[in-house]
Amino acid sequence: QVQLVESGGGLVQAGGSLRLSCAVSGRTFPSRSMGWFRQAPGKERDIVAGITWSGKNTYYADSVKGRFTISRDNAKNTVYLQMNALKPEDTGVYYCAVDRFQREGVFTVWSDYGNWGQGTQVTVSS
What is the per-residue pLDDT across 47-70, written as a single tens digit (0 to 9) for each? Predict the structure, then answer.
């Protein structure tokens, strides 16, 4: 059974930084792509960033390009999201998720992911 636990969220002023972590238990982590999603109140859960199992390929939503960096440490079964130059519109609950299948590439739709963490709240004040 795969379990994901996010941490690192909090309240930060605009322009500040946060680093989210997602610890994954289970044997699937090293062989699966991972994604970070964001859900703001009243909005859908959208992908923010994704990374392939090797870490060689990444994906970023246009709204976070140049500000966020996704990375992973397969030895520690952990994926990270470094968030810099935060904006109020980055506010939301951030979830990490594991691709349903062992495959190449990063997939951007939430239904492509089969295991989710409980989420961590990020609030950016103006």
Answer: 999 999 999 999 999 999 999 999
